[in-house]
Design goal:
By secondary structure, the chain is mainly alpha-helical. The protein contains 5 helices and no strands.
Amino acid sequence: MAGAEKVTITLPAELLEGMKAHTDDVSGYLTELAERAERRRALRDELARYQDSFGAFTDREMAEARALLHGAEAERELRGRVLDEYLTDCESRMGAVSGEARQRARQVFDEVFAAEGWWGAAS
């Protein structure tokens, strides 16, 4: 590994045993964890600078980002939010949407996306 330095760390025995249960390469595992933590820190700093310049992210932007970062579970959450936003808009224009109509809308929404092989059920 170019540019690497060797360090010695002390870990609680239980933590080390837990790591050994998942990998034979504890050193590589810890290196990967440190790299991941550094990437998260750099991303947090970059996002903070962006928000300082352009304002806070909307809930929808945050949901879309989570979907990209965390996969299907976040995608279901995003789809549920999109449907909720749509139903809220319908209510503001046409009046209350019944619980039965909400359930039917969720069912149709799920059926369309399932038929296309897209996301799982809306949350």
